[in-house]
Specification:
The protein has nine helices and 13 strands. It is of the alpha+beta class. The structure holds ligand DP6.
Amino acid sequence: MGLKLYSAPSNIALIKYMGKTNSKDNLPTNTSLSYTLEHLRTFVTIEKISTTNDSNSNLTDQWQPLSQSEFNALDNSSVNTNSKKLYPLELSEKGKSKFLNHLNYLKDLAQVKDSFLIKSANNFPSDCGIASSSSSFAALTVAAMSEFQKLSSLELDLSPSYLSSLSRKGSGSSCRSFFSPWCAWQKDRGFAKSFALKDLHHLVLLLDVEKKEVSSSEAHLRVTTSPIFKQRLDVIENRYEHLVQAMEKQDWPLIRSICGVEFEEMHQLFETSVPAFSYRSDNTFKVLKELKSLEATYVKTAPLVTMDAGSNIHLLFRSEDLSLAKQYAELFKQYNSINSWDGSHE
Ligand code: DP6
């Protein structure tokens, strides 16, 4: 049988996962809610490089970037994206071992003892500062468990909820990539949320990509030292409920305002941690200010603005506001950006 191509999308949180109650299992301090970014994906292949009864073999699992030509040779017709241009992942040694450790965890679970070669790539540049860990770990989990089912004597559970909970152990936010377009994550469980709002247009402005970053895993630990962390824990579940209600009412200005408070608070946590750190540069503040003043012009239709643990600014527009989304892309064209509507991530 030929090699199979697996893939999973990235996601952007509107209520953030920041802080853990258990670092080993990536259990979050609070409920989060995300929108799935179907156009930003990781692709994965997995092939066996040794068998358990091969006594000469002491091979260990390996990872390599998936090339465009390998991708083109595979059946990618069912892949749900309009951009099939690949950007090879550049995994650091630390990144590689986190990825392969997760593979090992899945092998133990499925009682599979062979060694594997994993190849992966994203359809967005890996140096652009968009966290690819959610799509990477989700794609690895789907690929590994689906292939292990062919090798294992066990009956493996391949349901999205179970795969989501396994993926969470590799990287927390990846558990939300299994449900689309909306996913909530509460304690050890990711699940779909259904809202009338869908088919949002996504534009991410790539600011200061060269800026040195504190990894999000490190950020999760550090925020607990911030004097405002406890205050956040007191209000965050209410904020989540408030956002769900605003989504149900499709009250776009209210949705925007709750999400604005939320990402601002996360960045203030970073900036008041001990030691403090920040992902926001003068450039970030300048663009955030420009977005605020545009919001005064487009009171009903302006985009939802949010940021992850990086300097990039994510904008989500309602489906009926595509022409405004294109206007914003034009207004901010001095910055590199990636959008969900024109099928190219050049
Ligand atoms: C800021 O999922 O990358 O993007 O579980 O340690 O791998 P680990 O962290 P990760 O954290 C992402 C945090 C965030 C907010 C979010 O996606 O909710």
